[in-house]
Amino acid sequence: MNKTILLKNRPKGRPTLDDFEFKEIEKPSPKEGEVLLKTKYVSVDPYLRGRMRDEKSYIEPFQLNEPVESGIIAEVIESNSENFKKGDYVNGMLQWKQFQTSNGKGLQKVDGSKAPLSAYLGVLGLTGITAYLGLKKIGDLEKGETLLVSGASGAVGTVVGQIGKIKGCKVVGIAGTDEKIKTIKEKFHFDEGINYKTTDNMKKAIAEACPNGVDVYYDNVGGEILDAAMANINYNGRVVCCGAISLYNKTEQPTGPRHETTLIKKSVLMQGFTVRDYQEEFPAAIQQLATWLQEDKLTYSETIVEGFDEIPQAFIDLFDGKNKGKMIVKV
Ligand code: NDP
Fold first, then answer.
1. Does 262 share its domain with 306?
2. Which has the closest alpha carbon to 177: 160, 152, 158?
3. Which SMART domains match (predicted)?
4. Could you tell me if 145 and 266 lie in one domain?
5. Contact 162, 184 (CB under 8 A)
6. Atom 11 in ligand 1: which residue has the minimum CA distance?
7. Is 331:98 a contact under the CB 8 Å cutoff?
8. Domain range for residue 21?
9. How many CB atoms lie within 10 A of CB 256?
10. From 110's CA, which of 102, 213, 289, 313 has a CA 20 to 30 Å away?
11. For 112-138, what is each residue's pLDDT tens digit?
12. What's the rounded Cα separation, in Å, for the pair 106 and 168?
C-alpha cells in the first residue's frame, strides 16, 4: 500500500485541510539506476504556501491534483543504483508519498550516526543554512552590535539568535507566546524577548529592548513587525529580508509606513534573498553549523508530529505558531 497527498485547491487566504487530497496509489518498483525510497521525516515550511499560488516565482508553483513536495529524509529500501545501497538514508526535495522511486538526482546521503536524521531538515538543513548565510551575506554582524530577530522561536530564528550570541552581539527576539520568549532566553541565550501578541506598541517595546538601536534586523515575518523594527534601525543598519509569514495568507498586500526615507537618511541596507542563491556555499555552511553543534555552541528545538496523514495539518499549524523550532512530521 502507498499513499500520496495532492494539492486539491489553491488556498484562498489561510490553507485548510480541504485544500489537500489523500490518494492511494501503487507502490512503484525501481528501474535500472533507480532506488525505492521510504519516507521517514517530512519538513513542512512556510515557503510552501507561496508554491501553492499560481504565480511566477524563484521556484515553480505546485500543480493542482499533483503531489506536494518538500524536504524529506528517506530510507533506501531497494537499490538498482551504483550510488546508493539498501539502508542508506538520503535527504532531498521529494514528494509527499509514503514510497517513491528516484534516479538519485538531487539526493544527498545523510549519516544518522553523526546527528539525528531529523536534524538534516532543520539545523543542518535548509533552515540552518538560511539562518547562517542570510546573516553572513547581508547581516554582516560585528561584535557588540544589536541583532533583532522576528520569528525568533522558529527553525530559522533560533539559529539566527544563537549565531548572534556566538558573534558577541546583543540579541533580541520577537515571538508569539510568553513560553516561547522564556525558551529563547533560557535555552537559546537571547538577551531579551518581546511577545508581539501581547505588546500594544511594538515600536516602543523594541526601543526599550534595544536601547542602542537595532544594527541588524533579521526579518522572518514582514508586515507591522518590520515597520516597528524599521522605526528603530540604526545608521548603517542592515535588514535581512528572509521571510514574510505575516503576509503569506493575505489576499491583498496591506499598506503601512514607507521605508524609503529611513533607508536613505540612515544609509540602511535592506536586502532580500533566497537561500538557493548561495548553493555553492552550502557545504561550508553545514560544516560550520555541525562544528558549532559539536562544540555545544549551538542547540536546536524540533516539534515532531507523528503520522503521514498529519502532514497537511502540521503545515497549517505553522501559521498558528504551534511549532517550537523546526516543524517536522515523522512518518
Ligand atoms: P518557523 O519555524 O519560524 O515557523 C513559522 C513561525 O512563524 C510560527 O511558529 C509563528 O511563531 C510565526 N508566525 C506565524 N504567523 C505569523 C504572523 N502573522 N506574524 C508573525 N509571526 C508569525 O518557520 P521557518 O523558520 O521555517 O521560516 C521562517 C521564515 O523564513 C519564513 O517566513 C520562511 O518563509 C522564511 N524562509 C526563507 C528562506 C529564504 O531562502 N529566504 C528559506 C527558509 C525559510 P509565533 O508563535 O512567534 O507567531
1. no
2. 152
3. PKS_ER (SM00829)
4. yes
5. no
6. 321
7. yes
8. 2-122+301-330
9. 13
10. 313
11. 998 999 999 999 999 999 999 999 999
12. 36
